[in-house]
Each structure stands twice: as structure tokens, then as C-alpha cells.
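Input/output pair, single chain:
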Amino acid sequence: MTTLAPGYRAAPVRALAQAALMDRICVRPPYFALRDPRLENGLFVAEAAAELPQGLTLGPMRPGDLSRHGAIAGLCALALRQPDDARRYYLATEATFTGHPNPAPYGSELRFAAEVAELGKRGAKARVTADARGARVLALEVSYTVLSASLFGRLHAPRRRPVVRGAFAPLPPQAVSWQGNT
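Output:
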């Protein structure tokens, strides 16, 4: 287990305001789909469930979505350990994914728990687990390049486009279907 930022006293469970968390990270809904974010004994913890049709997937969630939610849980743990509230961009550069067979049906709720393995000014690493019905589904270790908001803005200024808010509503689950072989 890693130590917490100076001055932080661990409480058994501390709910996190999603708006405050969003101020620190670079991920937004619908890509950010973790629910009930909180700190539990120094770990970032949240829940998620499958959002797409099952297709041929065995287990509670598609591996790509396991990776997405896991990487986001990891960067949340990192953001909460930073010494200030500034927004940073956590670019995943390497990951080790270990999947575990789990008898939970597709769509079961998963509990993601993330801890900081390393935290530096320009690089970081997080370890994440996901469990369904008390049994492991995923162990993930993700390395990130960490960029300040100002550096990220300078690097990507030539590609910047205006953001159109509210133009695209998320598709309801029944609007997505799967047909044929992949």
C-alpha cells in the first residue's frame, strides 16, 4: 500500500464530489462512466457495469471496457495524490492487463480499486483491480506520462477546435446492436 499525500488523513470511506474530481482530470462523460467515486482506506474506488450489448463476451464486461475503466480509475487515484488541485493530463503509455475468469453474468456491477504505485512530475504508475461478486476479474498496471494543463494546451494548440456542447446525445442501449461475425 502506498502512502497518501502530505497532510491527508485517511478515513475508512470518503465520498468524492464528481465535479471536484472532473476539475483534476482530463476525462469526461460519456468516456468517464465510473459511479460513486470515493476513497476507501487510501484507494480510489468506484463502480461500473457494461454499457454495450454482450455480443460474444464471456464474463461481466468486455475486455476493452475493463481496460478503459481501469485506466481511468488509475488516473483518478494519481490525480487525488497530487499536492494541488490543478488539472493534469494522464496519457497512458504502457499497460499490463491480467484477466481472470469470473462467473458473474454480463452486465454485473464491477468494483474498481486503484492505488498509486509511482508518482513523479512527468510520469506515474497505478495498479488497479476489478472485482465482480467478490471475485477478481482484472488486475491492471498502467504507466502514464503526466502533462500539466498548460503544457498539454501548448502541445495541442495547432489542433484545437471549438467544443460544441449538447450537440450529441448518448445513444440509448437499445439503439446499439450487434450482427454477424467479428
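The helical segments are 18-24, 63-81, 149-156. The chain has three helices and seven strands.
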